[in-house]
């Protein structure tokens, strides 16, 4: 029997822990190897998970936290609405109503598609007074969460506010080649978190000094294995690096779906509520981790490896080029690994380990499929991938993963069964 990882002393948290396998069709290109369900066995949770994923689509880094916010708002609203009923059909209708209302508000260009998806769901669930009331309750919950999150600093303009680069100095971030683009996501660290009160409590200490052995070791490693023309990086390492060049949100959509699919499908509102809460808490916790990451990035303003290798004091190489183009924001800590550490913590705490290998694909690395048997393996690959990409020092990645774990654990501990 597989082991789950409950947090102690929380009766509603226990609703998130379950055993048993599930399977359903994946409507977005994120997870391979799952079977189609018969029409009589349509899983409304996965149905609206896939609707959300398709509506968000493939996004880039500057869009990530805003897109994560859309996920969180919709599924927090769904959790609130679903927990008002113990019957399966009204609970499923409440979920659909909440997510539909959120997505049509925040991604209004997709309203026609979302209306069609809702019609399919309601055509299956029927039009009883209880179902109609549940849809209305879901919509009401979504409007309430949208109002609560108004002016939370996670809109695109606030997140990507202009940031003038600092004066050049050893160790200090500067725009990076080839485009030398202005910094992005400079305002993200000022966003309002979902679960923790203040991200400043979880900021890491400063990165290693330029005169430390750790810095010299990391610099030598990335110079050797992170270069575009590295003779030491293996073909598999290159595949992992290219695979995880996608946004973390897209990268983990299939992994979270696998966890939701594996949760037991109890024929009542509690079974739906448990699985909805997993999605809601995953996105709430990873948003808090992202806010923490960028608060630290723009506090420490650490230079990127390409700047250090090309113009630093240790054997400068002006021609050195990383495998993956360096993102336009400071080095420390790594956003990908902070997200990964938070995601790992939520999945290990609230979901069972994978019941079978989880095969994932990447929209930015066609033809590459990576298979994972434990949630920790995704964090491991994220840590390595950013080094093999030539865009992060290893210490940066390791600290990021630790920060993400710490933020997510604190957020889950604070939840304690209270409404999100």
From TrEMBL:
Q: Which UniProt keywords apply?
A: Signal
Q: What InterPro entries is this protein classified in? A: NapH1-like_2nd, PAP2/HPO_sf, TAT_signal, V-haloperoxidase
Signal peptide coordinates: 1-32
Q: Which residues form the Vanadium-dependent haloperoxidase NapH1-like second helical-bundle domain?
A: 273-406
One Pfam family, short name please?
Answer: VCPO_2nd
On the tree of life, the source organism's domain of life is Bacteria
Which SUPFAM superfamilies has this protein been placed in?
A: Acid phosphatase/Vanadium-dependent haloperoxidase
From the Swiss-Prot or TrEMBL record, give the protein name: PAP2 superfamily protein
Recorded source organism is Micromonospora palomenae
